[in-house]
Specification:
Strand content: 5-15%
Shape: elongated
Radius of gyration: 24 Å
Mean pLDDT: 89
Number of helices: 15
Strand order of the largest sheet: 3-4-1-5
Largest sheet: 4 strands, mixed
Low-confidence stretches: none
Helix content: 40-55%
């Protein structure tokens, strides 16, 4: 499963790396809404919630679906500005139609309110469908959707005011340190882009981002099959400290593609691909292979030893071992006439975190 961004014919200058205060604030709000996704920020989130005024806390809970399950597209700017106020001014310039559509995608569930479909602002049937979907998500979602459709200007002003209050409450203090890390990352990325080209720069973003062999498409390894194009607009890459481990992508029609990627830790490990995670899950789905792993966990064994231990034929054991090897869960070493198989315990142990990272990516 991948998200593909067509960049065929796109001038080199249209692929850019830039920091965004609004996108980082959105990442922080997601951490506050879903601390389980970000155990490394648990202490920070606890301190912020403990020191937050009840009025602001209620505001955040009221609209947390704008950044909880996915980010509203207008919260990830395609043209980042130096300050949060400037970026919020840019959001204010978006007309009601795309703003409401983006807000209802998160309110009503991903891809439920489609670009180009009848507008819930003007079409009664579309309005009822949006409200039905919001109701299914929860009471807060329904109330937000009702207010948004009845008075977009008032809701937009309330969302901006909430974000500005977040700046005063916790964002400005955190941004001072975060901005330094983002600037360091951007220097590296822009230098790679200038000196070694798009492919190298993309590879430095994440092991889950690559340039297609033909050079005309950016491939993002995510749990979805989607495609978008950057023709006439470009692609913006926004580094994030608080966004880890997520790789957020704006890909809806009508919006310029934006990729928000986590800034690498000092000693980053390469993310395991979805293909590898899938292979490992499939390899572990067969009871015979689980029995073989049980034996191999106790030490190296040959095919015949495994066959004898589980009363199987050597050819049958060989077939199962081949599946486990393709999944990267075993290594084979020849010693004289014998090939002994060893369990890759670290990779098996990491399957849990790798699966979680693949899902959250």
């Amino acid at each position: 499963m991948t998200l593909r961004i067509d960049i065929g014919g796109l001038p080199a200058g249209r692929l850019r790396f830039a920091a965004s205060p609004l996108a980082e604030l959105t990442a922080m709000l997601h951490v506050l809404a879903e601390p389980g996704h970000h155990p490394q920020f648990a202490d920070w989130a606890g301190e912020v919630w403990a020191g937050m005024r009840p009025y602001l806390a209620e505001r955040l809970r009221e609209a947390d679906f704008l950044w909880r399950s996915s980010q509203a597209d207008f919260l990830l700017p395609a043209r980042p500005r130096p300050t949060l106020v400037e970026e919020l001014d840019e959001v204010d310039r978006i007309s009601d139609e795309p703003y409401v559509t983006a807000a209802l995608v998160t309110t009503c569930g991903s891809n439920r309110v489609r670009f180009g479909a009848p507008s819930p602002l003007t079409d009664e049937a579309a309005r009822e469908r949006a409200l039905d979907l919001a109701q299914a998500r929860g009471v807060r979602q329904e109330a937000f959707a009702e207010r948004l459709l009845a008075d977009p200007a008032a809701v937009r002003a309330r969302v901006r005011d909430t974000l500005e209050q977040c700046a005063e409450a916790f964002f400005d203090a955190a941004w001072t340190d975060v901005a330094v890390r983002l600037a360091t990352d951007l220097r590296v990325k822009n230098d790679l882009l200038r000196r070694e080209g798009v492919g190298t720069a993309l590879a430095s973003v994440s092991g889950a981002v690559s340039l297609a062999p033909e050079g005309d498409c950016i491939v993002v390894d995510k749990l979805l099959d989607k495609a978008t194009a950057a023709h006439g607009t470009g692609v913006t890459f926004i580094p994030s400290v608080f966004g880890s481990p997520h790789l957020a992508v704006v890909h809806a029609p009508g919006w310029q593609p934006v990729v928000q990627y986590p800034v690498a830790e000092p000693s980053p490990s390469e993310p395991v691909s979805l293909e590898t995670v899938t292979l490992r899950l499939e390899a572990l789905s067969h009871p015979v292979r689980l029995r073989l792993l049980r034996t191999l966990a106790r030490g190296p064994h040959t095919t015949r030893e495994l066959a004898h231990a589980w009363e199987l034929s050597p050819p049958e054991v060989s077939r199962h071992l081949a599946v486990l090897r393709r999944a990267g869960l075993l290594t084979a070493r020849r010693r004289g006439r014998y090939v002994r198989y060893t369990l890759n315990l670290p990779d098996l142990t990491a399957l849990g975190p790798d699966l979680l990272a693949a899902v959250l990516r």
